[in-house]
Write a structure and sequence with these properties.
Strand order of the largest sheet of chain B: 1-2
Oligomer: heterodimer
CATH class of chain A: Mainly Alpha
CATH architecture of chain B: Orthogonal Bundle
Number of domains of chain A: 1
Number of strands of chain A: 4
Number of domains of chain B: 1
CATH topology of chain A: ABC transporter involved in vitamin B12 uptake, BtuC
Shape of chain B: globular
Shape of chain A: globular
Number of strands of chain B: 6
Structural class of chain A: mainly alpha
Strand content of chain A: under 5%
Structural class of chain B: mainly alpha
Order of helices and strands of chain A: HHHHEEEHHHHEHHH
Distance between the termini of chain A: 51 Å
Order of helices and strands of chain B: HHHEEHHEEEEHHHHHHHH
Largest sheet of chain B: 2 strands, antiparallel
CATH architecture of chain A: Orthogonal Bundle
Strand order of the largest sheet of chain A: 1-4
């Protein structure tokens, strides 16, 4: 039982990070029906940027909380800048192009960001600065670390802000209108280009936060860290129902839990034929299963494809 | 054609003779002029060409984006490696192992395609990407509890390519001409590439090829004309995969060593880049793109040397730079010239219709 609850806590932490990244996929997909393969690499960029900035600020003698806040701000600015560039220079010119074109562009951008990061930061694993969050509490045999608390709390805060923006602000209303019907929205005076850019901006900002969280949680940064994370977050978005914000969060949490429990129990179930080294396969098997049996996901509405 | 049939035909035939002659003496010229290392690069380039021809069937003809194509190459390579190496002490002959590898790769392609081909294009892309990773994870981990793939260490001492008594790993002397092992391998690979080209060319203009083109241009219209789109897409997947598997088998036999490292997403993107650069759906373009990108690492090698010489340190790693350029090339091509550098006329029209 203790193992189970412990994996539950670990899974929820992982799930929070997946949820934040999945939101980026779902926001863009909801409007453009485009899978932004490069989104996972924005998370990597956020992690590496915050890593470097934090080291820099700590070297300058700025106290830890200030350094973390400044690094986060810097990483968010960097990711948002790159996200906007991708949208403006690569995706926007292809809106009318055949479907294959933006997909190939997306995979090209992902490669460019990844290898670009390798050119800047090198191919070695980089140690993440210690955030002093290794303190832990024990509740009836279950260990909860401070960083897990921060990740959970931070995710909750960001989700509240995001839901407020989408459902209560005029920018959010414009975004929802664009997602529903871009042409009609444009006729009614909505600046659809701005709405689309905003989806990229929000996604990139969330990616930067998720990057910092992943880096701080695993205490490591590497130029390939965005690939697997991106694929899993996409799985989470599909699981929840792509295009649906609440669905992305739910999908992220469910995937995080499944993976943590799978990693914890897979070896026992299969008598060690499959161990936790197969946990990545788990997510894909789930993705394929969802796509075949219930492509609209947990919360997505089934929409017939427009011709 | 009607006015002077004989003149035209002989001119065309003449061109073919010249091309054949050039291809036959090419490895000797390369060996004499650039050294033996370049013949090896040429051999690997031919394998890349075959991979590109295979992916072209999926992406170019049927219009399906497959981001895990290297997995089929891996399946073919491991098929050869397991059946012709000391790993299980099996030493099956080439003419059994190679077709078997292609067949197994094709069935993997069908197994992947069967559940996923009902999906929209973008989902398919990400599922194939995940599939490529799954294959790699299995290759990496299937060394326990029963050691099948030998894990990350890979399989070594794979039997060299050999047909009967003729081994392609050893030099031979034919009619007084000494043929080195790399040159002999070149002829073997060239033979396979030419077969693949003929097959692919015939496919393109066959009933099947026309059906693929219809699906690529408008799937809904194709389906309403009575085409069984799912079965046709499955065929494209399986056929493309079999080319990948064949190339993988040759790779394993040529290199004598396989490990999961060779089958990463980067490699899949590289093959995609070859197909896209030359011009999706156009064999001439695909072959040129594949050859160009296969030689790119060699062209970039001086970048490292220059840095060492003038800056005292290698700041920009040439292999990272190569992958970076692949990414940039894909983006730029889609933006400015989605039909590729040497497109077929029909495909160019398709890209610019909307």
């Amino acid at each position: 039982m203790a193992t189970f609850l412990q994996q539950l806590v670990n899974g929820l932490t992982l799930g929070c990070i997946y949820a934040l990244v999945a939101l980026g996929y779902t926001l863009v997909y909801g409007i453009l029906e485009l899978i932004n393969f490069a989104h996972g690499d924005l998370v990597m960029l956020g992690a590496l940027l915050s890593l470097s900035l934090m080291r820099l600020f700590l070297d300058w003698g700025i106290p830890l909380p200030g350094a973390v806040a400044l690094a986060l701000a810097g990483a968010m600015a960097g990711c948002v800048g790159v996200g906007l560039l991708l949208e403006r220079l690569a995706y926007r010119p292809l809106r009318q192009a055949p479907k294959l074109a933006p997909l190939i562009t997306a995979i090209g951008l992902s490669m460019t960001l990844e290898q670009g990061a390798a050119l800047i930061w090198g191919r070695d694993y980089l140690a993440f600065p210690d955030l002093g969050l290794s303190h832990s509490w024990v509740f009836g045999g279950i260990v909860v670390t401070a960083i897990q608390g921060v990740i959970g709390g931070g995710t909750l805060l960001l989700l509240t802000v995001l839901l407020w923006i989408i459902h209560r602000s005029s920018l959010g209303r414009a975004m929802r209108a664009t997602a529903q019907n871009p042409v009609a929205a444009q006729l009614l005076g909505v600046d659809t280009d701005r709405s689309i850019a905003l989806a990229f901006v929000i996604g990139a900002a969330l990616a930067a936060v998720a990057g910092l969280m992943v880096g701080a949680y695993y205490q490591v940064g590497h130029y390939t860290m965005g690939f697997m994370l991106g694929l899993k977050a996409f799985t989470a978005a599909v699981l929840g129902g792509i295009g649906n914000l609440q669905g992305a969060v739910l999908g992220g949490l469910v995937l995080g839990l499944l993976e943590a429990l799978g990693a914890g129990y897979l070896g026992d179930w299969t008598h060690n034929v499959f161990g936790s080294n197969y946990k990545d396969v788990f997510a894909f098997a789930l993705l394929i299963a969802v796509l075949i049996f219930h492509p609209s996901g947990l919360l997505g509405r089934h929409a017939p494809e427009k011709v | 054609m009607t006015s002077a049939p004989f003149a035209r035909v002989s001119l065309r035939q003449g061109r073919w003779y010249v091309a054949t002659l050039l291809l036959l003496i090419l490895p000797f010229a390369v060996e004499w002029w650039l050294g033996r290392g370049w013949v090896r690069i040429l051999d690997f380039a031919l394998l890349s060409v075959m991979l590109a021809i295979g992916l072209n069937i999926v992406v170019g003809y049927a219009g399906l984006l497959d981001l895990g194509f290297i997995a089929f190459f891996g399946v073919g390579a491991y098929c050869y490696a397991l059946l012709a190496s000391p790993q299980f002490d099996l030493h099956w002959p080439l003419w059994v192992v190679l077709p078997l590898g292609a067949l197994v790769a094709a069935s993997f392609g069908a197994a992947l395609g069967w559940p996923t081909l009902g999906l929209k294009g973008d989902y398919l892309a990400i599922v194939t990407m995940g599939f490529g990773e799954i294959i790699r994870i299995f290759l990496n981990n299937l060394n326990a509890p029963v050691n099948i793939t030998n894990g990350p260490q890979g399989i070594t001492m794979i039997d060299s390519l050999r047909l009967g008594d003729w081994s392609f790993a050893r030099p031979h002397t034919l009619a007084g001409v000494k043929i080195g092992s790399l040159v002999g391998t070149y002829y073997l690979f060239l033979l396979f590439v030419i077969l693949a080209l003929i097959l692919s060319h015939r496919l393109e203009y066959s009933r099947l090829g026309r059906a693929w083109a219809a699906i690529r241009e408008d799937e809904i219209a194709a389906a309403s004309m009575g085409l069984d789109t799912r079965r046709l897409k499955l065929l494209a997947f399986a056929m493309g995969a079999s080319f990948g598997g064949l190339s993988g088998g040759l790779f394993a036999g040529f290199q004598g060593f396989v490990s999961p490292e060779s089958f990463t997403l980067q490699e899949s993107v590289m093959i995609l880049c070859m197909v896209v650069l030359g011009g999706m759906g156009n064999l001439r373009g695909v072959v040129s793109g594949a050859l160009l990108l296969a030689f790119l690492p060699e062209l970039l090698r001086p970048v490292g040397v220059w840095q060492q010489r003038w800056l005292g340190q290698v700041w920009i790693d040439p292999s990272t730079l190569r992958l970076f350029l692949f990414g940039v090339a894909l983006v730029l091509l889609m933006r400015w010239r989605p039909e590729g550098v040497w497109p077929s006329r029909a495909r160019a029209r398709e890209w610019h219709r909307s």
